[in-house]
Amino acid sequence: MCGIVGYLGEKDTKEILLSGLKELEYRGYDSAGIAVLQDGNFNSYKAVGKLVNLEEKTKDFVTDKFAAGIGHTRWATHGKPTELNAHPHVGQSSYVVHNGIIENYATLKKELTSEGVKFLSQTDTEVIVHQFEKNLKKSDSAFEAFTKTVSELEGAYAILLVTKSEDKTIFFAKNGSPMLVGINEENEKYFASSDTPLIGRCSDVNYFEDGDYGFVTKNQLAIFNKKNAKVEPKFTKLSTNKLSAQKDGHRFFMEKEIYEQSTVISDTLLGRLRDSQVLFDEIESSLFDGINEIKLCACGTSYHSALSASYMFERYAKIKTSVEVASEFRYREPVMTQDTLFVVISQSGETADTLETLKMAKRNNLKTLVICNVDNSSMVRLADASILTRAGVEKGVASTKAFATQVTVFWMLSLYVAKLKNSLADAEIARQIKLLRQVPASVKVTDDRHERIKRLSKRYLHGHGFFFIGRDVFFPLALEGALKLKEISYLHAEGYPSGEMKHGPIALADPELFTIALLPQHLLYEKAKSNVEELSARDSTICVISPIVFDKADDFIQTGNHEDYMLEFFEMMVVVQLLSLEISVRLGNDVDMPRNLAKSVTVE
Ligand code: M6R
Q: Dihedral, CA atoms, 505, 510, 516, 520, nearest 10 degrees?
């Protein structure tokens, strides 16, 4: 996830771009850059790290006349966070900024390279500007070249491009990544990835639809849709509340992040799925040579995603897998053998306990892999290989979208290993890839669903405890549901394997014990149902989450009829996240910054 801004007008372009990027810094901050075209000349600046570094670099740069400017704050997906990989990317006489992923960049790059084009960066984005300039040579106008370029791109993008060949114009295209344009009475044009940079500068905005592309000049805003038909902008009035705009109108960042899961899962899948094959450009398949065991190590929510991974690795890839809580692992003098791939999982990449286990694995000469949300974090720098989860910046202390993208990566990785090890037939891998493509839809929050959970939450504000129960991969989900509730409601909650309740915890059952039961239809339904009946017979208050109506429950949240248990997993994940959120809201707690917790735990 990155942030882009653009400005065409007569005011201080540098100040407008930098302050716009400041508003978008939450979308990514490993590098930033701007390019400004005034009087037919370009000035471009880039800096690694936070925006202050770019501010410092541009402090003597003056923009005091009509200009076309574009800017970008980066969340690395292809290539390390270096100045060369920072946007805007340059061709011979044009600059481009881009948010998203160009899936066919490798093919385009190969072609361009064979034609003599020199690439400066490792990014997918750079192909856009070179492809545009190649097309420009054969076109009657820059717009014709831009239109052709857009038609050649596959993947997700929000793009702004400026070129000397039409120096009073900004070209734009949007598909799958957010972008809007704002106008005002002074004939200025503003672009951004979200509302916030535009608040106070524009009165009316047009949110682009997927497939839209076009250009702006001082007097024109021309939009074309995916069928190449010219369309009228649909202007709406811009909100004036900045914080609410940052939260996309949601009450809390956690709520926004729950709603965002569909998008960030799509981002995480982008470019990694073929018909019967999962691709991870960032790792070599030789990483798995000589590996007989996978050991996963993490803390908190990341530990829960690792637990869910252990079911998938053993079931699909048929590889022995074990999972460790990092703070335990580091002191228990574990036996580490070199046929083990050591995998750490972390949203931040900085959690001290997890980082320490990675160091232990390195000291023992194990091959290491990190699944992480932050490029260039300590773990990414240290591990032999890394896979990024592309959840974007997660602000809520209670992790939601990071978990969703971690499980998505693990599902893909288990199929990747299954292919290497020949443990699943191609047809089965192809079937699962089709399922993976359905995940973004399965996590969409509908108004009805959210309203139902909001109403139901009022019955769960007291009691002497909660048990979230599930079997198989739904057990880690139960653990995660309980952790979410604990973190933001301060109510006692445990996650438990459904079948284990009868071995002790069932003694607690009474009407003041709340059981949240995960009952998927495609995985051990009858077994899990019997476990819930045992609790119901002992008068525990029960909330069942299932696609199949369950008449012995006090409350029931009906999930959709999916064709596979993993899709049920993702839908139920959203239900438990929303339930915790609504209970916390009713209790009047600080949802985004719960007491005693920190987002990144860099101490022991
Ligand atoms: O950044 P990490 O994934 O390494 O963080 C691990 C835990 O500290 C983290 O998941 C924590 O449990 C969250 N607050 C969970 O919501």
A: 80
Average pLDDT over residues 455-464: 92
In three-state secondary structure terms, 557 is strand
Per CATH, is 255-442 categorized as 3.40.50.10490? yes
Ligand 1 atom closest to 348 (CA): 1
State the number of CA atoms in the 13 A half-sphere of 344 facing the CB: 38
Tens of pLDDT along 258-295?
999 999 999 999 989 999 999 999 999 999 999 999 99
Does the Cβ of 16 fall within 6 Å of ligand 1?
A: no
Q: Which pTM was predicted? A: 0.81
Residues 6+ apart with CB under 8 A from 315: 414
CATH topology match: 3-245 vs 255-442: no
Please, how many CA atoms are within 13 Å of residue 89, restricted to the half-sphere of its CB? 24
CATH superfamily of the domain spanning 445-586? Glucose-6-phosphate isomerase like protein; domain 1 (3.40.50.10490)
Phi/psi of residue 398, each to 5°?
-75, 115
Q: Measured from the CB, is residue 439 less than 6 Å from ligand 1?
A: no
- One of 3.50.50.60, 3.60.20.10, 3.20.20.70, 3.40.50.10860 is the CATH number of 3-245, namely 3.60.20.10
Q: How far does the centroid of ligand 1 lie from the alpha carbon of residue 116, in Å? A: 47
Least confident among 121-130, 153-162, 374-383:
374-383
Tell how far the Cα of 381 is from the centroid of ligand 1, in angstroms: 19
